[in-house]
Amino acid sequence: MSYFIGRNREARETYGFDEIALVPGNITVDPEDTDISFKLGDIRLSIPFMASAMDGVVNVPFAVALNKLGGLAVLNLDGINTRYENSEEVVNEIIHCEPSKATEVFQKIYKTPVNRKLIARRVEEIKKAKVPCAVSCIPQNAAEYGPIAKEAGADVFVVQSTVITVKFESSMQKSLDISKFVREMKIPVVAGNCVTYRASLEIIETGASGLLIGVGPGAACTTRGVLGIGVPQVTATVDCAAARDFYYKKTGKYVPVITDGGMLAGGDVCKAIASGADAVMIGSPFAKAKEAPGKGYHWGMATPHANLPRGTRVHVGVTGSIEQILFGPANTDDGTQNLAGALRTSMGALGCHNLREMQLCRIIIAPSIKVEGKLLQKAQIVGMGKQK
């Protein structure tokens, strides 16, 4: 629905996770009988969870641990793991600096150039554990880093920027030909991020194997405040999933949509899938894991931008292991652990056997759904009272 916000100027109403709820189905299904597997290219993951390519979330040990559990962690090739032999020393400098100095420290640390040899080494270290390897970089570096990563054994390559489009106009730099890059890589290429139907369809038509949805919803991201751009994740996911479905009907090729960012608890993950996502990419929930390199701190990929940083360092704490966050047993009362269990239980209540069925469940607009009857939780800051 659109409204006039002034003379001859319409604005569309859009929705995020906090404005909607999912309606239980006419049947219920045993959660243990639900299928939450996810296919990306020829790789089948047992759970639809990907870890964001952020330096406070994913390093080699974290990638190995998550991938062994059935998910897929993405290593940032533009980050500290390919700039420094010992990234732990760098992390210590980041997490111990004063908040007022954080941006300055980030900018200094990320001035060190990427070491091409470390790109291959990090991929080889992940592959040594006999798990899939996914890596990421910005479009400007993809043509250079892509072949290095593929040669070293990478299974998935993610081309990721704040906003990605097929057509990029610049008088200063050469744009990435996504279609050509996808053809030459010959491994699944995931592209992102976008939030509109048309941009999604054009990217899907390049031959990409997956699409990342979301501009600015992440816990450590300030893009929406700095640039004023973004679309709430529910509406963005619905619109981009519509492009996926149109392309599937037209060609018979199914290209998964991955909602990236803005999810803190199991309910958000469930709403993302119900909105049309085939999988989710999350950062801050995984940043809370004991295995995460950020040691309870989290920061975005655009945080160290030399001229216009779009992100900040946030403290998320350490609450449990990756396994607890994904599968439990949960020792938190706010839905931030056992995310896979929450997804299965939600599917059971909705009467859905698999993720495709969940994408068809009934959604209602319900802005009071998280506060209705929760006064005591909010006052005592427990359970749902801890959530945003």
Describe this structure in words.
- The chain is globular and about 55 Å long.
- By secondary structure, the protein is an alpha/beta fold.
- It contains 15 helices and 16 strands.
- Strand 9, helix 6 and strand 10 form a beta-alpha-beta unit.
- The chain has a single domain, classed as Alpha-Beta Barrel (TIM Barrel).
- Helix 1 packs parallel to helix 4.
Question: What would a concise description of this structure say?
Answer:
With 388 residues, the chain is an alpha/beta fold. It has helices at 60-68, 87-96, 102-109, 116-127, 139-152, 178-185, 197-204, 223-226, 233-251, 266-274, 284-287, 322-327, 339-350, 355-358, 375-380; strands at residues 2-6, 9-12, 20-22, 38-40, 43-45, 49-51, 72-76, 134-137, 156-160, 189-194, 210-213, 257-260, 279-282, 297-299, 313-315, 363-365. It contains 15 helices and 16 strands.
